[in-house]
Write a structure and sequence with these properties.
two-stranded parallel ribbon; globular; alpha+beta; C8orf32 fold; Serine Threonine Protein Phosphatase 5, Tetratricopeptide repeat
C-alpha cells in the first residue's frame, strides 16, 4: 500500500495527532528570514482552473446528466481510461496543478477532487485515516507518511430546500486498503487540510535547502489551523536549519508540553541541546526518547548500508529484513535487501525484492529507476 506525504517531518519531522489545545507562546520570528521566493497564497490551493471547468462542463456533461454529479465524478476519478490519474509523491500540488499533471500524492488528489466536487455543487467531508506509521527520506530529512481521503455526497432537492444525502456518500480513496482490510479514520476540517498542504510545502522546501521559503510555508500552516501540531515541529526544524536554537527550543518546549511523548519533537530537542553544548540535557532527552522509541526510523537501514559497504552481505540482509518487517511498503528497504541478496548470490529473491521496491515506490522517477534495474537484471540473467 502506498502512503502519501500528508504530514512531513524533521531531522525528524513527524505526523502527530491533532490536539484540541495549542501552544500559547509566541512561535514566529519573521526577522530571521527573507521574503519567500513565491507568494504563499492560500486562495490558489483549491482554485479551479479553466481546464478543470471545461472538463466538468463539457467532457463530463453527458455523464453528469445521465448518472448524476456524484456517480459521474466518482467514475471519472476511478476509471483509468478517464482522467488517467497517477499516484506520485514527488511534490504537493494545488488542485489545478494536480489536474494538469494528472498526478499527485493523496493530499493533492483529495484537494483536486474537492475543487471539482464543489463546482458541481457537491459537499465533501475530509478524513484522516489511521495507518501504521511509516517513514521515508527527503534529502537528509526523515519523513513520516499519513493518509487522507474524502467522501462525496449527493444533493437532494433544490433552491432554498437543498439537502444532502449522507447515507449515499461515496468515499474516494487514492490509496485504498487491501481487500478485507478494515480502515479507521476521523473527520478533519478543510482548515486542517489547508494546514497539511502548507506543512508539506514547508518540508519540501527544507529538503530543497530553501529555508526562507520553508519558514513562510510553516507559518502559513499554523495560521491556517493552530491545532495542527505537526506544523510546530516543522517550524522548529526550520529554526534549527537557520541556527536559531533559542527559537527552536521555545517551539519544541511548547509542543512537548502538549504532547510529552512526541518522538520527533524529543529528537529535535536533543539536537538543540547538543548544539548548545548542554550535553547532560541532550542525554536526558535521548534517554527519554529511547524509552518511547527503542529503534528509531531507519535505524536498521543505516546499519544495513554500512554492512553493504563492508561487503558483509549476510549482516546487511538481516538488517534490511528487520526494516521490511516493520515497514513493508517503503521502497528503499526492499532495494537494500535486494542488493544484499545479490551479494549473497540469491538472484531470484533479489529480483523479487527489486520488484517490490518498484511496486511500493510513490515517485514516478523511482519507479523508472527500479524498472531499469529490473530490466538490467533480466539481461544479466540471460547472458
Amino acid at each position: 500500500m502506498r502512503r502519501c506525504l500528508a504530514l512531513l517531518t524533521a531531522l525528524l519531522l513527524s505526523a502527530c495527532s491533532t490536539a484540541p489545545l495549542v501552544p500559547t507562546g509566541t512561535v514566529f520570528d519573521d526577522s530571521l528570514f527573507s521574503a519567500p521566493s513565491q507568494p504563499v497564497d492560500r486562495s490558489q490551493v483549491f482554485a479551479l482552473s479553466d481546464a478543470m471547468k471545461r472538463y466538468l462542463e463539457v467532457d463530463l456533461a453527458t455523464e453528469v446528466r445521465n448518472k448524476g454529479e456524484r456517480a459521474a465524478l466518482a467514475e471519472a476519478l476511478s476509471r483509468r481510461e478517464r482522467l488517467r490519474l497517477e499516484y506520485d509523491t514527488a511534490t504537493t500540488r494545488t488542485a489545478s496543478q494536480a489536474f494538469d499533471a494528472r498526478a499527485g500524492n493523496c493530499l493533492s488528489l483529495v484537494i483536486m477532487t474537492s475543487a471539482l466536487a464543489r463546482h458541481l455543487g457537491m459537499p465533501v467531508q475530509y478524513h484522516s485515516v489511521f495507518v501504521d506509521e511509516t517513514w521515508g527520506r527527503a534529502g537528509n530529512l526523515l519523513v513520516s507518511s499519513g493518509h487522507v481521503n474524502l467522501t462525496l455526497n449527493n444533493r437532494l432537492g433544490g433552491g432554498s430546500n437543498v439537502r444532502f444525502d449522507a447515507v449515499a456518500a461515496v468515499t474516494i480513496d487514492f490509496d485504498p486498503p487491501l481487500p478485507g482490510q478494515r480502515q479507521h479514520s476521523r473527520v478533519i476540517s478543510e482548515s486542517t487540510v489547508m494546514a497539511m498542504f502548507m506543512n508539506n510545502r514547508s518540508a519540501e522546501s527544507l529538503a530543497a535547502g530553501q529555508v526562507d521559503d520553508a519558514y513562510w510555508w510553516s507559518r502559513a500552516a499554523i495560521e491556517a489551523e493552530p491545532t495542527f501540531l505537526t506544523a510546530y515541529n516543522t517550524l522548529a526544524v526550520v529554526y534549527l536549519r537557520r541556527g536559531a536554537l533559542m527559537q527552536a527550543e521555545r517551539v519544541l518546549a511548547q509542543l512537548l508540553a502538549l504532547e510529552p511523548a512526541n518522538a520527533a519533537a524529543l529528537s529535535n530537542l536533543a539536537s538543540v541541546y547538543h548544539r548548545q553544548g548542554r550535553l547532560a540535557e541532550a542525554q536526558a532527552a535521548q534517554q527519554r526518547l529511547a524509552s518511547i522509541e527503542p529503534a528509531p526510523p531507519f535505524h536498521y537501514f543505516h546499519r544495513g548500508l554500512e554492512a553493504l559497504r563492508q561487503r558483509d552481505y549476510a549482516q546487511a540482509k538481516s538488517l534490511f529484513q528487520k526494516e521490511v518487517s516493520r515497514s513493508a511498503y517503503y521502497h528503499e528497504f526492499h532495494f537494500g535487501l535486494a542488493m544484499a541478496l545479490l551479494g549473497l548470490g540469491e538472484f531470484d529473491e533479489a529480483r523479487h525484492q527489486l520488484a517490490l521496491a518498484k511496486a511500493s515506490s510513490t515517485r514516478a522517477a523511482d519507479r523508472e529507476l527500479y524498472a531499469g534495474k529490473l530490466e538490467r537484471m533480466k539481461e544479466l540473467r540471460m547472458q
